[in-house]
Amino acid sequence: MLLFILKRLGLAVLVAFTVSFISFSLLFMAGDPAAALAGETASGEDIEAIRKLYGFDRPMLVQYGDWLVSALQFDFGESYYFRLPVSSLIVDRLGVTMTLGVCGITFALLTAVPLGVAAAIRPNSIIDRVALFLSVAGQAMPSFWFGLILIVIFAIKLGWLPPSGASTPAHFIMPTIVLGYYAMPAIMRLTRAGMLDVLSSDYIRTARAKGAPEGRVLFRHALRNAIIPVVSLAAVQMGFMLGGSIVVESIFALHGAGFLAWESIARNDLPTVQALILVFSMFYIVFTFLADVLNAWLDPRMRSS
Amino acid sequence: MTQFDTQDPILAEITGPTPGQMLRKRVFGHQGLMIGAGVLVILALIAVFAPLLAPHDPYAQSLMTRMEPPVFLGGDWEHPLGTDHLGRDYLSRLIYGARVSLMIGGIAALISGVIGTAMGVAAGYFGGRVDMVVTFLINVRLAMPVVLVALAVVAILGGSLQVVIVVLGLLLWDRFAVVMRASTLQVRGREYVAAARAIGASTPRVILSEIMPNIANNLIVVVTLEMAHAILLEAALSFLGLGVQPPTPSWGLMVSEGKNMMLFEPWMVLIPGAVLFILVLAINLMGDGLRDVTAPENRS
Amino acid sequence: MKQSSLRHTLAGLAIVAASGAAYAEKANDTLRVAFTKELENVDSYFNSSREGVVLQRAVWDGLIYRDPITNEYSGNLATSWEWIDDLTLELKLREGVKFHNGEPFNADDVVYTVNFVAREENGVKTQRNVNWMKSAEKVDDYTVRIHLKDKFPAAIEFLSGPVSMYPDEYYAEAGPSGMGLKPVGTGPYKVVSVTPGQHFVLEKNENYHDSPKGQPEITNIDIRTIPDVNTQMAELFSGSLDLIWQVPADQAEKLAEMDQFTVTNESTMRVGYLSMDAAGRSGDTPFTNLKVRQAVNHAINREELVAALLKGKSKVVWTPCFPSQFGCVEEAATQYEYDPEKAKALLAEAGYPDGFTTEFYAYRDREYAEAILSYLNAVGIKSDFKFLQYSALRELNMTGDVPLAFLTWGSFSVNDASAMVSQFFKHGSLDDARDDQVLADLEVADSATDPDTRVEHYTKAIERITEQAYWAPMFSYNTNYVSTKEVEYTPTADEVLRFTTMGWN
């Protein structure tokens, strides 16, 4: 088990390095940030001076090495735009994104798991078909469009919810739904498939034969087993979801990390973009790692793999 | 992190041997598949015959007749779906927009399909180090936040149809690689593969004539899924202003442009969004149907 | 059953929402305003946006004050000033003024501020605002001298604009980033809290000195950054904002039709124009041909652009400067009436009967750019549209890689033609015309002290520039301010929100 964890951890670290290297090279292609830094009124000489000052004239590998050494100490440099440490900018905004992610995944689980269970109890019934359709339709809905429609209906026409911002829990309702619905279909399908599998197993049949009440069979025995892969899927989806929060945050003007990423791209604020790509990858890496460990822990057969 | 199978329900459902003969029967008996394919064919025809179908030039601007409402909101039949913020015919732009979406979906899926299939098949067939490297690359790719990286790259290169297609194509190969790897692993051990090898067939030959035909079903399913994925991502990029550039009529861009008047003229957002939804829904229904008919034992 | 419980939940949430966004803020004497851009740093020397200027005017004071309506100068932190010679300005300071942290204002603060910002190494963002000053020197506690590097007639203008006074002891300790997080000034409003880029809360300075800015009336100002105009309007509808500005024309028009809002339109000095690579810096481009440039000018329907898209107080502009600027003689400019047929004919004469394809760049107002592109398209000039960030486009521009671009220039609100035409036609890195005759005229016009000589040479330069159609000047911009009926505010033409002149109806 320990060996398994160590192997996975090693892989995770290696992946993180590779991602950071790739994103650094990509952003390096963006060319010279000196002009962006110098601002509207700078002359050619001003830009040249800034280029030297920040060391943009050095080879890429040298710059990457520098960046990596400081990044390992959680120092991502200074934002070109805010002139504040990138790490503090990100820490400031991560709260909103994390809250959104947790709410989103909770929402997805709370809606998708019951739907999946209901669909599995009566395969090919109306519920099953509706659930399947919802899952297909859910995945086809462009999230920015969905978000705009929610704003028009619930914030403008009905006036029930605040259209933007993050100051009260009510502000998180619409973003949560928009972010969460995208993860729903996958969770629902997996719950359904898992439940179908377990329900047809001998052990459930035995439980039923023994005369255990149906509810007990479903929730005590079946769901318990079917939920394991769902939990690890949810962890992975959470990683994806945080990366996808850019769109949602920009629609609802939530000043989270995703929004910061979008704005920083527009502002050519490379240190911030670079750090955010790494942070979002780390989310994914950490959550998949946790999912793997959880899987292995719950399923001894996997420890050997 | 290599347990893709437990994490991807789609994969879990589609891998597995397929009895080819039963396929046809199942295809025509499957409602979702037929509806999805039907809608998709119609949209494809619309895209192909856009110049014949569009009532106006989609680029013809008329600043004096901006944002005219569609017929059902009191507009006239000159512009059945109204006009956009530059007075261009909304219906014509929608019709031409089908071309953009289908082209992006199709070509991006093609590029990513070639990359992902090559990697997946190589990993599944050769195993060992090749598999290790491919698996690692898949992990790296999955760890990269797609929207963020695509936005950053498009911002650097400047948005255009070609750039968006290539960027999406280079980013969306992961599921191809995962599914093709697993499928190849399954097929590799089959008798006919061993037989072909025994009679001295070369590796490319074994892969092309023995492996590929037997994993093609799964490939088609992934193609549809990734097409839908690419179309949605393009729309999201265009919505954020870093996708296809004007005056190209992209549905995502139309939503983005209509968004400015969302509170007063909601139809400007609703119409292109709804069409986008229908297209992606059709592709997904088709993909789902294909999954059902190619892997029947996983569906009850 | 399920339905009704859902309804309960939603109703409950609505109550939460309502209590979160307190309505009728007039009662709380709090004005809620939206910023569009994330402000990089509240320290006014380290940002370069409108939002920054708005806060600068509220939190700090300059030595001198210019009335935005009459344009007359009067003392603010200084009470009088006098030129000792061309390079030395002596100012008497106001006594008894205190900074928000209690530090008294005196000559030391002025000396520290000027010496700090004038040093290039300290990296003030807009060097142009401060690099004309060499240093400051204390004469006594309430008298200072500012030494200039060179003759600079606009010194008074700058001292009443971007140069504001900082507390020496606090600034020495906090520096620009500390000042940005906890700003301290002498201005009519104190900063209560700053969430960088997102949220700024101001409170009336009860001890504000007897300044020409006037005394603040509204007690609290709450500023949130909401980048999307739709969201801003949604907040305005739901009653959680009182004032938004820089509202695009279409939306402003719709808002004006509704009864509950006041919509005010003011013109700005910003001019939109097409810049063409007449000098051929981007390689072999059709724009080196005069007929092609004239064709571009004839292809664009400026009246329609202004009437349909810009609206408000925008006007068609033919000059490479803003018509109200000194020296910007409108009559000198050649006017190219909208005539697509003539444009096509000119293109054919130039050897492009079927038109050509060019790269077309823009950095703002995608909608305007798209409309212009469409006009060009109609006469056969096809384009490969590229929408870039300002800095990226400027970089390309400097290296001369831009054949055709839709650009705008706001002249820093300086009411003199030198702030626009001379910025672009004096063979600098942004000059795509590189016309020696224009250069010669502008050099005389910029440095002459006699107004008539200046006008004469600006006229010549404008004549030459427009005859040669180096640019296609198009229109001036405007700004819309939208507020609830409870807010009383008359905006000024310089696009700066002044909280001190706001009140409740």
- What would the principal axes of the Cα set say about the shape of chain B? elongated
Q: Beta fraction of the residues of chain C?
A: 15-25%
Shape of chain C: globular
Number of strands of chain C: 18
- Which sheet architecture does the biggest sheet of chain C show? 6 strands, mixed
Q: What's the end-to-end separation of chain C, in Å?
A: 48 Å
- Oligomeric state: heterotrimer
Low-confidence stretches of chain C: 1-24
Q: Strand count, sense and closure of the main sheet of chain B?
A: none
β-strand amount of chain B: under 5%
Fraction in helix of chain C: 25-40%
Tell me what you see in this structure.
The complex is a heterotrimer of chains A (305), B (300) and C (505). Chain A is mainly α and 305 residues long. Chain A is 76% helix and 0% strand. In chain A, helix 5 runs antiparallel to helix 6 (126-140). Chain B has 300 residues and is mostly helical. In chain B, 71% of the residues lie in helices and 0% in strands. Chain B starts with a helix and ends in a 6-residue tail after the last helix. Mean pLDDT of chain B is 84; it is low at 1-7 and 296-300. By secondary structure, chain C is of the alpha+beta class. In chain C, a hairpin with a 3-residue loop joins strand 8 (189-195) and strand 9 (199-204). The longest helix of chain C has 19 residues, at 2-20. Chain C starts with a helix and ends with a strand. At the A-B interface, helix 1, helix 6, helix 7, helix 9 and helix 11 of A face helix 2, helix 7, helix 8, helix 12 and helix 13 of B.
What topology emerges from the helices and strands here?
The complex is a heterotrimer of chains A (305), B (300) and C (505).
Chain A: H1 2-29, H2 34-38, H3 44-54, H4 60-72, H5 86-121, H6 126-140, H7 143-157, H8 173-181, H9 184-199, H10 202-209, H11 214-243, H12 245-251, H13 257-266, H14 270-298
Chain B: H1 4-7, H2 9-14, H3 22-29, H4 31-48, H5 50-53, H6 90-126, H7 128-143, H8 146-157, H9 161-171, H10 174-188, H11 191-198, H12 203-239, H13 251-259, H14 267-294
Helix pairs in contact in B: 3-14, 4-6, 4-14, 6-7, 6-9, 6-10, 6-12, 8-9, 10-12, 11-12, 12-13, 12-14, 13-14
Chain C: H1 2-20, E1 30-35, H2 50-59, E2 64-66, E3 73-75, E4 78-85, E5 88-93, H3 107-118, E6 133-140, E7 143-148, H4 155-159, H5 168-181, E8 189-195, E9 199-204, E10 220-225, H6 229-237, E11 243-245, H7 249-257, E12 261-276, H8 290-299, H9 302-310, H10 340-349, E13 356-362, H11 366-378, E14 381-387, H12 390-398, E15 404-409, H13 421-424, H14 436-447, H15 451-467, E16 471-484, E17 487-488, E18 503-504
Parallel strand pairs in C: 1-10, 13-14, 13-15
Antiparallel strand pairs in C: 2-3, 4-5, 5-7, 6-7, 8-9, 9-10, 11-16, 12-15, 12-16, 17-18
Helix pairs in contact in C: 3-5, 8-10, 14-15
